[in-house]
Structures are given as structure tokens and as C-alpha cells.
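Example for tutorial group B:
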């Protein structure tokens, strides 16, 4: 179960504002990246985000470059999920690979306002907002395992350990 406050943004939130381009080649640990999450779009975000909070975006969330830091900074900041009308393909895959839930739920995006409480139950496939349930199809088993294991690398390590 993911529960938190919604941080709502518009269409085409690109990787350059999710993780500012000026830090792309700086060597940083994920905790340091989290301090710069969304700083060019929302200067209050990194200081005020709480574990389990949910990013709500419009169309084409994560467009731009394929930088993985744009997912890492959000996950390290404690973001529980990103809900959008649609995702840039590479961003979506980077999110899953990093263990960050990414769901396309246009109707929920339209209803949710900045600061609203949101909960997501992966078991039942339901996002709840103001007592309204938005259903989404069950995640494929492999995707669910990757998310549950914290990302693709931990998932593969776990599988290799079991096989050894």
C-alpha cells in the first residue's frame, strides 16, 4: 500500500526539470540527488516531500533525455509512485527498472489536485482519492517482482542467489 500527498504537475514534465541538467555529470549518491529533485519546477518539493507521496503528471511525463537520475532522485526522495496521463517510453522503463511504480490513470490525474491524499493498493489494483476508486489492471508478475525487490538489479541478484 502506497499512501501520501499528491504533488501535481502538468504535461511534458521533462527529465531536465525532474533532475536538473546542470547536475547530470556530477558524481552524487542517490541521497544527494534527492535534494535536487524537481528544484527547477518546484523549489519546495525536495524539502517537503514525504515518504509515500505521489507525483501526479499530465501527458508525456519524463520526456527528454534518458537520464536515470530523473527516476533515482524521486525514488530517493521517498516518492511512492508517479501517476500520469502518459509517460515517455524510456522514463517509464527506467522507473520500473529502478523500482518506482509508474501508472497511467488519466481519469485519476484529472480528479486529483495538488496536496490531496492518495492511496494505491497494488494487490487490488486500486488508486483511491476522496473515496473514489480508480482501477488499473494487475501488474504483470515480473514487473511486480521487480518493484517488490526494489528494482531490476536487486531483483536479478535475488534470482541469481536462488539459482545458485
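The residue assignment follows.
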Amino acid at each position: 500500500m502506497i499512501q501520501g500527498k499528491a504533488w501535481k504537475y502538468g504535461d511534458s514534465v521533462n527529465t531536465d526539470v525532474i533532475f536538473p541538467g546542470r547536475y547530470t555529470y556530477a558524481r552524487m549518491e542517490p541521497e544527494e540527488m534527492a535534494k535536487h529533485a524537481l528544484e527547477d519546477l518546484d523549489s519546495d518539493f525536495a524539502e517537503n516531500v514525504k515518504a509515500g507521496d505521489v507525483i501526479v503528471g499530465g501527458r508525456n511525463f519524463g520526456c527528454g533525455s534518458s537520464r536515470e537520475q530523473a527516476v533515482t532522485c524521486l525514488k530517493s526522495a521517498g516518492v511512492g509512485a508517479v501517476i500520469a496521463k502518459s509517460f515517455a517510453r524510456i522514463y517509464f522503463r527506467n522507473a520500473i527498472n529502478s523500482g518506482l511504480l509508474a501508472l497511467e490513470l488519466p481519469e485519476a490525474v484529472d480528479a486529483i489536485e495538488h496536496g490531496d491524499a492518495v492511496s494505491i493498493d497494488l494487490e487490488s489494483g486500486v488508486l483511491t482519492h476522496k473515496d473514489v476508486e480508480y482501477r488499473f489492471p494487475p501488474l504483470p508478475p515480473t514487473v511486480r517482482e521487480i518493484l517488490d525487490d526494489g528494482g531490476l538489479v536487486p531483483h536479478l541478484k535475488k534470482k541469481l542467489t536462488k539459482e545458485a
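The radius of gyration is 15 Å. Compare this with the pattern of hydrophobic and polar residues in the output above.
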